[in-house]
Amino acid sequence: MDTWKFYDITHREHVVCNPTSEEKLAHLVELLRLPTNAQVVDIACGKGEFLIRLAEAYGARGMGIDLSPFHVADAARRLEARASSARITFTQMDGAEFKVDEPHSLDLASCIGASWVFGGHANTLEALISMVRPGGWVIVGEPYWQQEPSGDYLEASGCSREDFGSHSSNAEAGERLGTELVHTIVSSKDDWDRYEGLQWFATAEYARAHPNDPDLAEVVERVRKARAAYLRWGRDTLGWAIYMFRSPSAA
Fold first, then answer.
1. What whole-number distance in Å separates Cα of residue 99 and Cα of residue 21?
2. pLDDT tens digit sequence for 86-123
3. Model confidence pLDDT, tens digit, residues 36-74
4. pTM for the whole thing?
5. Own/partner pairs for 113-116, CB < 8 Å, 24+ apart?
6. Do 171 and 183 meet the contact criterion of CB atoms below 8 Å apart?
7. Domains and CATH numbers, the chain
8. 160 vs 158: CA distance, rounded Å
9. pLDDT confidence tier of residue 248, bands split at 50, 70 and 90
10. Which end of the chain is less congested by CB atoms within 10 angstroms, N or C?
11. Strand order of the sheet with strand 238-246?
């Protein structure tokens, strides 16, 4: 079935499409202290909640990019309802193809939970660093192994051991590239339970409302398998954090 239809169904109850609570997202926005009219980009922006909050708090202007036509449409509707005059646009495209008009010109570049766009965590950091001005923000969200994953969990989840590093290696990756790690916002088991559980809930609701959808059996089976893997192994194995890096200021 269509990948983006699947994620639209399973994430219909989500405001934030990763294991970060709205309270922690608000904390992130507060800590950024962006200048008025800051120029920003959010790669793989989901439903646009982060960008909309930046527009509400700072009058930020810029672009959100996502491959999902469903999420881009959701983001545009949310922006119109909450900050219709904001100079934010949402575009459906491959984030790896995005290029800033001028390198090292943005106040903030982010990719929260989609490092696959650039081929991994380190590549994502390199791409975002090239976009921001001296002293600008590089914000990434990335999973990490809380403990060594079992072979059974890797098989059940479709992950490989090399997909993720540790919490410390995620942080060190930015420091090796010359940025300063100034804060991490780490998700709790409650955050993970909300993120995973809302997918189960959304799928159940969709199944009741659309019993004749030809894709329904596949959606239900995929969610069932993911739920079993999460409850048996993933809840204790996979962590998540948002990393706040700052580009070095000009001398």
1. 30
2. 999 999 999 999 999 999 999 999 999 999 999 999 99
3. 999 999 999 999 999 999 999 999 999 999 999 999 999
4. 0.96
5. 113/17, 113/18, 113/44, 113/141, 113/142, 113/240, 114/43, 114/44, 115/140, 115/142
6. no
7. 3-241 (3.40.50.150)
8. 7
9. confident
10. C
11. 88-92, 61-66, 39-43, 106-112, 132-145, 238-246, 180-186
DSSP per residue, 53-65: HHHHHH--EEEEE
Token pair, residue 116, equals: 């696959």
The two three-digit tokens of residue 179, written as one number: 């940025």
What does the mean pLDDT of the chain come to? 96
Confidence at residue 249, expressed as pLDDT on a 0 to 100 scale: 79
CA–CA separation, 11 and 188 (whole Å)? 19
Q: What is the pLDDT of residue 250?
A: 60
User: Could you tell me the two tokens for 233?
Assistant: 């192994």
CA dihedral 64, 68, 70, 74 (to 10 degrees): -20
Distance CA 179, CA 245 (A): 6
